[in-house]
């Protein structure tokens, strides 16, 4: 019995070692399983991902967890690029805004130039017939005429030498342009009327001579007569102005 007991000790030792090794293997597997479960259950950290902004530039940003609210906001703020074809306006979309009757003169000047003369004169408080009369006397309505050895230009025969500052103030650069020529001439006549207390004959004398020297010139008398004649040649023209229906 004693020998048998002694002979059994190596066998018992091996059995114990096997059991311990199996227990260790089970513990290792269990620990690994727990680590995997913990890793899966932890929330994911934001990740960096490239994207493009509204202008096509690449940017790096974090992607937060999307909720229903953020999706709605993103949809509302996203620029739309829907293209629509232009619609042709229909006749029903336009109404006559104004039907205005304007008075024109029976002179060889285009309607737009006549309207410019009338509006400019009225803006300065001058009878438009006087401006038409000066234009007839000075150039017989020839906007390209150059007189006084090249010193007087255009419809109203304005001399740039004496009116450089006036032209700069009025933004006029070309006295052979009848619109600019009239603008400068009317401004000058208005200034003369101011100097001579509104006396048209004296102002016309100065317009032609450079100053009033106590005598009304034949030029001033002629212009006044031409203006009177022109007033009898006026006619009415109706202009329609259309605009979008409000």
**CATH uppermost class of the domain at 110-233:** Mainly Alpha
The count of helical stretches stands at 8
| Class inferred from helices and paired strands | alpha+beta
Radius of gyration: 49 Å
CATH architecture level-2 label of the domain at 110-233: Orthogonal Bundle
Blueprint (SSEs and pairs):
Elements lengths: L1 H40 L6 E5 L5 E5 L5 H10 L16 E11 L6 H13 L4 H12 L6 E2 L4 E2 L10 H7 L7 H18 L4 H10 L8 H14 L3 E10 L2
Antiparallel strand pairs: 1-2, 3-6, 4-5
Helix pairs in contact: 3-4, 3-6, 4-8, 6-7, 7-8
Describe the structure in your own words:
This protein is an alpha+beta fold and about 250 residues long. It has a domain at about 110-235: Lysozyme. Helix content is about 50%, strand content about 15%. The chain contains 8 helices and 6 strands, in the order H-E-E-H-E-H-H-E-E-H-H-H-H-E. It has helices at about 1-40, 70-75, 110-125, 130-140, 165-170, 180-195, 200-210, 220-230; strands at about 50, 60, 95-105, 145, 150-155, 235-245. The protein has a two-stranded antiparallel sheet. A two-stranded antiparallel sheet has the order 3-6. A hairpin with a 4-residue loop joins strand 4 and strand 5 (about 150-155). Helix 3 crosses helix 4 and helix 7 packs across helix 8. The chain is rod-shaped. The termini are far apart.
């Amino acid at each position: 019995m004693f020998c048998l007991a002694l002979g059994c000790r190596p066998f018992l030792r091996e059995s114990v070692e096997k059991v311990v090794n199996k227990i260790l293997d089970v513990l290792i597997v269990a620990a690994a399983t727990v680590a995997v479960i913990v890793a899966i259950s932890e929330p994911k950290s934001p990740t960096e991902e490239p994207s493009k902004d509204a202008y096509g530039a690449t940017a790096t940003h974090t992607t937060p967890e999307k909720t229903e609210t953020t999706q709605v906001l993103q949809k509302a703020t996203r620029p739309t690029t829907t293209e629509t074809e232009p619609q042709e306006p229909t006749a029903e979309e336009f109404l006559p805004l104004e039907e205005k009757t304007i008075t024109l003169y029976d002179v060889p000047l285009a309607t737009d130039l006549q309207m410019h003369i009338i509006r400019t004169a009225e803006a300065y408080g001058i009878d438009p017939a006087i401006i038409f009369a000066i234009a007839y006397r000075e150039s017989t309505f020839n906007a390209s005429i150059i007189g006084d050895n090249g010193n007087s230009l255009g419809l109203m025969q304005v001399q740039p030498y004496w009116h450089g500052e006036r032209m700069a103030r009025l933004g006029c650069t070309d006295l052979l342009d009848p619109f600019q020529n009239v603008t400068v001439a009317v401004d000058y006549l208005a200034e003369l009327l101011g100097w001579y207390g509104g006396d048209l004959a004296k102002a016309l004398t100065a317009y032609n001579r450079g100053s009033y020297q106590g005598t009304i010139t034949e030029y001033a008398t002629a212009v006044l007569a031409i203006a009177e004649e022109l007033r009898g040649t006026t006619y009415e023209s109706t202009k329609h102005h259309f605009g979008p229906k409000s």
